[in-house]
Design goal:
Elements: E1 19-23, E2 26-29, E3 34-37, H1 40-43, H2 52-62, H3 75-86, E4 92-96, H4 99-117, E5 125-129, H5 138-143, E6 160-163, H6 168-174, E7 179-184, E8 187-188, E9 194-195, H7 198-211, E10 214-218, E11 242-245, E12 256-260, H8 281-296, H9 299-317, E13 324-330, E14 333-338, H10 343-351, E15 354-355, E16 357-358, E17 363-366, H11 374-395
Helix pairs in contact: 2-8, 3-8, 9-11
């Protein structure tokens, strides 16, 4: 008889590991083997696995109350929203369960703002970018600039057009009487760890201002300290009208957030949008503890310093390796561009007890904990660089 079929749908190509314990930047599998985690569950466990303050706050909340729904006031929502507003350019927050839902909310509020507040319903179109990734709902996968995620899901919602990334002139050409917003990742994570150029971002922000468009920043992967600042937009000297968070906000508890300017409040009145589970007692307890740790320990600054060290080490150790192209990224979101496919190289790195993740077919993505130690980074980089050196030697 063959192996029993899983009761799960086969929509994930999973790595052959089952982890049972995590602490800091380390994971252990069911056989007791230890792994160094340089992917953080896709840039989620920014404080490492099971951070103490978050764990304690979750235990305390779990013993008290889990869920009542958004028909009632939830104190943790108010506290987390106040922390986010006090430390960003936003004035109001909507909580949900994931990054896709946060981006969906941003799309909806942008359209509703023009339709109901400005009374310009003809303006509903959003400009996004080639190789972007905004989620898996029908609206967010349509906003995504990658055809592979759309296959088989037609008909897709209308109202999205796509510009080449880092091409402000192309954005300007796409602006029409239908345009309501531009939606942008400041680092395209899934698209290959591609950072936005400062001049491009500045020009796009100016175009939005000139044409009365909303600037929406997808900070699902870059937010909450990942880039060496609390939010990536701080690197660029701009303020978005809307930005979205998820991955790092709950240290692994499912939570998403859409943050916006005061003028947008009137677009999300009672009954216009909602969620049953979003921002419940457990997720906001994790979010508050995460943000408090970020602020009190100045975690973004620590991430910035470690990022400088990682970039320096990678550029030194990988210099001259013919398999390595550009090393790029921002903060602790780093891509090693390759001249060959990444699949077998990542498999080899995993077998040596270091976890990394692809970003497209030719990039190795590193997204370690923002509190990872220098010793742990040295161990991980040594494994990666030796693997690439051996592969280059074998290819000669």
């Amino acid at each position: 008889m063959g192996e029993a079929q899983s009761a799960l749908f086969p929509n994930y190509a999973r790595y052959p590991f089952t982890f049972v314990k995590g602490e800091g930047s380390r994971l252990w599998d069911e056989n007791g083997k230890e792994y160094l985690d340089l992917m953080c569950g896709l840039a989620v466990t920014n404080l490492g696995h099971a951070p103490k303050r978050v764990t304690e706050r979750l235990k305390e909340q779990a013993d008290t109350l889990w869920h009542t729904s958004n028909l009632f006031h939830i104190p943790g929502q108010e506290k987390l929203a106040e922390l986010l507003v006090a430390n960003s350019c936003a004035d109001a927050v909507f909580f949900c369960n994931s990054g896709a839902e946060a981006n969906e909310a941003a799309i909806k509020i942008a359209r509703r703002y023009f339709s109901k507040v400005l009374e310009q319903p003809e303006r509903y179109e959003i400009i996004t970018f080639d190789m972007s990734f905004h989620g898996r709902t029908l609206a967010t996968l349509t906003a995504t600039g990658q055809e592979k995620v759309k296959e088989g899901f037609a008909p897709l919602p209308a109202g999205f057009v796509y510009a080449p990334y880092n091409d402000a002139a192309a954005v300007e050409k796409l602006i029409s009487p239908r345009t309501c917003a531009v939606m942008l990742e400041l680092v395209q994570g899934e698209g290959g760890v591609n950072p936005a150029e400062p001049g491009f971002v500045k020009t796009v922000a100016e175009l939005c201002e000139r044409h009365g468009l909303l600037l929406i920043l997808d900070e699902i992967q870059t937010g909450v300290g990942r880039t060496g600042k609390m939010f990536a937009y701080e690197h660029y000297g701009i303020e978005p009208d809307l930005f979205t968070l998820a991955k790092g906000l709950g240290s692994g508890m499912p939570i998403g957030a859409m943050l916006g300017k005061e003028k947008l409040r009137g677009a999300f009145i009672a009954g216009s949008h909602g969620t049953t589970f979003g921002g419940n007692y457990l997720s906001t307890a994790a979010g508050v503890a995460t943000m408090e740790t970020m602020l009190e320990e100045d975690v973004p600054a620590k991430a910035a310093a470690m990022s400088d060290y990682i970039f320096s080490e990678l550029k030194t150790k990988l210099a001259g390796n013919p398999l390595v192209g550009e090393i790029r990224g921002l903060g602790m979101l780093i891509g090693i561009g390759l001249t060959v496919p990444n699949t077998e190289l990542i498999k080899s790195i995993h077998e040596q007890g270091v976890l990394v993740v692809p970003a497209g077919p030719n990039v190795i993505r590193l997204a370690p904990s923002l509190l990872i130690s220098k010793e742990e980074i040295d161990r991980g980089l040594e494994t990666i660089c030796q693997t690439l050196a051996k592969a280059a030697a074998a290819a000669v």
